[in-house]
Design a protein that fits this description.
The complex is a heterodimer of chains A (113) and B (116). Chain A is mainly β. Helices cover 0% and strands 55% of the residues of chain A. Chain A contains no helices and 11 strands. In chain A, strands 2, 4, 5, 6, 9, 10 and 11 form a 7-stranded mixed β-sheet that branches. Chain B has 116 residues and is an all-beta fold. Chain B has strands at 4-7, 10-14, 19-25, 32-38, 45-51, 56-59, 62-67, 72-77, 86-92, 105-106, 110-115. Classes of the chains: A mainly beta (113), B mainly beta (116).
Chain lengths: 113, 116
């Protein structure tokens, strides 16, 4: 298996623009997580899905952030409009049922100018 | 929600010595405690985990201990090697086996530096 696949790997955009990050989980995994990593705040859980259903989005910073999982093999995290403070590495991770291990993607490094 | 505190933020040890990283958690319902290693520019990867029905677990040079009464757990690395240099994260969740619909709360990480 190729592992969790994220795109784009790097994104540089200007304040106010819309950003869409994409994730393909490992086939057969039933949970999907979006994390944000910064030096100051570490790894923050933004939202997670179980069987494509959003379970807890309390970590989503504000209404500018939204996430979807239309099917078991695809999820998106959207920021609209983006702000400089959104600059971070965004990780997607998936987990198979019955285990605790999260399998992380390579991350998407976002820079908002 | 859960709050995980981790210390130290940076730890420098001589190659061959032991390293200990400590974490505390706030939610007494948490019962799954993994440790992740993240090398520079890479993704976090699980190195060891422990569940609340176990007090200690070992895997070669790595061990984790758990004190549920005090709500703290620790990572121990013995005979450190240069390839152990990385950022280590502890985490906690209520998931038990982790199979439930719950997310991991991570500590802020420890940058472990192995001095040659």
């Amino acid at each position: 298996d190729a592992g969790v696949i994220q795109s784009p790997r790097h994104e540089v955009t200007e304040m106010g623009q819309e950003v869409t990050l994409r994730c393909k989980p490992i086939s057969g995994h039933n949970s999907l997580f979006w994390y944000r990593q910064t030096m100051m705040r570490g790894l923050e859980l933004l939202i997670y899905f179980n069987n494509n259903v959003p379970i807890d989005d309390s970590g989503m910073p504000e209404d500018r952030f939204s996430a979807k999982m239309p099917n078991a093999s695809f999820s998106t995290l959207k920021i609209q409009p983006s702000e400089p403070r959104d600059s971070a590495v965004y990780f997607c991770a998936s987990r198979p049922m019955g285990t605790g291990e999260l399998f992380f993607g390579e991350g998407s490094r976002l820079t908002v100018l | 929600g859960e709050n995980v505190e981790q210390h130290p933020s940076t730890l420098s040890v001589q190659e061959g010595d032991s390293a200990v990283i400590k974490c505390t958690y706030s939610d007494s319902a948490s019962n799954y405690f993994p440790w992740y290693k993240q090398e520079l520019g890479k993704r976090p990867q699980l190195i060891i985990d422990i569940r609340s029905n176990v007090g200690e677990k070992k895997d070669q040079r790595i061990a984790v201990t758990l004190n549920k009464t005090a709500k703290h757990f620790s990572l121990h690395i013995t005979e450190t090697q240069p390839e152990d240099s990385a950022v280590y994260f502890c985490a906690a969740s209520e998931g038990g086996t982790g199979g439930g619909a719950d997310g991991l709360t991570f500590g802020k990480g420890t940058h472990l530096i192995i001095q040659p």
